From TrEMBL:
This is Serine/threonine protein phosphatase 2A regulatory subunit. The lineage of its organism: Eukaryota, Metazoa, Chordata, Tunicata, Appendicularia. Belongs to the phosphatase 2A regulatory subunit B56 family. One of its GO terms (cellular component) is cytosol. Pfam families: B56 (PF01603). One of its GO terms (biological process) is signal transduction. GO terms for molecular function: protein phosphatase activator activity.
Amino acid sequence: MLRKLEVCCKIYSFDGYVNMEEERQKKNKTETLHELREAVQNNPQLLREPIIKNMVQMIEINVFRALPRPQPGVGGENDDETFHDPQYEHVSLIHDLFVNFLESQAFHPNTMKKYVDTSFITQLINLLNSHDEREREIVKTVLHRIYGKFLGLRGFIRKSINNIFLEFAYEDDSFNGVGELLEILGSIINGFAVPIKAEHKLFLSKVLIPLHKSRRYTSFQPHLSYCIVQFVEKESASTMLVVGSMLRVWPITNTAKEIMFLSEIEEILDVCEPHEFLNICEPLFQRLALCMKSQHFQVAERALYYWNNEYVVSLIEENIRMVMPIVFMSLYEAAKTHWSATIVMLVCNVLKTLMEMDQELFDNLAQLLMDDKNEPMDAQRTVLDAMNRAETMNNLNNPQSQMM
């Protein structure tokens, strides 16, 4: 086994032309890596101290390397083509071998801690900057296993992640593995004890929340949203901090990001306590009112879909006297002027829901609006006119329906 590990320590070039002998050696290395993995899985008794030492050395020689960068026009940040590292076949087998070792019966943290130390962790985390998403995915798995097995390294791993996020948020946002680190972090946050420690609250305010400002937010949004929701669920008092911060950096000129902000806030509202909702209600619905009348179809649609969420609607109903005056004018304008029949119909549904929640308030707001515009019309008529407008627009867009 020591001889096989020695064979796997040789590094081969995967760029350009290789001769037949080198091709044969590369194939031999691939087969040897498969054999080593099977040995770790089926013969854990082989994993004694000399083997472990040489195996870790072999892993370091192969995976801790200068990461290849995609050539211009081949899998770059803004390119459709995904970058594939030519060394990935060997690198993935070595990572897989390491994961199998970490999960084997022969694994003992006390034996391994002299080899898997802070230097090893630093180099491993740096691999998450790979342009090959396949490597980032397998490194994420390795780092997660190490976090679970090495209790003494947990603090260092969290601190290292913290430093990468700080640099990403405030200095240089070129690091590629933020999504993978957030995925690891999500499971770590899930294990936080309640009440949450002060250091974790500081991490939320100084590190996680500023990630919303990143121009690369859309690439890691689902993982960031999961972490934020975990915090809010465990510490309801953080709701105002999170939502208030997002409202202050709202992406007015980036509709794709704006839709993701709307989705993330709805996820936060799903775990929001009623008394915390009261604190964010006014500024939140001032922003939602603007989104609901947005001329961008998807933004308006996403904001109006809040009214399909039963829990959010129940929170609105409890605070209807605050919410309805904020959104009424925007809904009225959208019903009268929006170019999309679908949006007009969704607006009608929201107006009907508001009317059912508090008929008296709805009538009063409608009357104030009509007095201001000097148009005699009651509340019910407002909704009916909007519905008729939506049907007319649908008929214009679908001439066949008129023929039928």
